[in-house]
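step: validate -> pass
step: tokenize input -> pass
step: predict -> running
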Amino acid sequence: MKRNPNSFLITILLFAFGVGPLYSQTEGETISSSQIRNIIERVNGPDPRLVSGKLYRGARQGSVAGHPYYIDENWKTGFVIIDGILFDNLLLKYDVFENKLVLNTTNISKSAVLLCLNLEKTKRFGMNGRNFIPFPPEKDTPEPRFSESVVDDTLSFLILKRKDLKVEGGSVDYSYETYEDFYLLYNNELVKFRNRRTLFSLFPDLKDALKKYIRRENLTFIKKRSGNLSRLTLYCNTLLNNSQ
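step: predict -> pass
step: emit ->
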């Protein structure tokens, strides 16, 4: 019996927002934000709560310094992969403080609607040219946190960011404080990436070559910044891949 294609798309979206089953599909099929809006309108009219069960109510209001988002307060064009389905050309934000991936769309009344996507079913998402994967990768936990995949190779470099609200005095009541942790993923094992010595310990046979690269490129690691660690990881991958 043939399956109604419109019914199939509705089923995909319902699963994406945490409702109903999803039939298997090859990764890479694109569903645009306009299609998502149309499906929402057909399924439940002006009230998207029947689809997602979760509306995003925004960042804390009032006298607050900073923001809770991974990049900044602006919406980013991106994609989400949920069970092999690629939802592309979406307007997204990742609220690190609340651990919410937020979709900006509209309802049947053309009013803006902010929906929390189902992180438990999300395989990967991207915004502004950056890619994010569950942390730790492949761990089956509800509502996983997502890390930025800076280098995705034999040796991968991940950034896990979190934010806390700090009570302030004076002109603001609260401020967001940002914390970043760096990790290396090698042979499915996570290692805290503290500095260049982490690589020296992991790959003692490559230590001399890595040191020469550091001197040649004048890389410094006095401050905890991801740029030079990323460059060193990329070069380490070159050495690892050439040795295979």
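step: describe -> The radius of gyration is 21 Å.
step: cleanup -> pass
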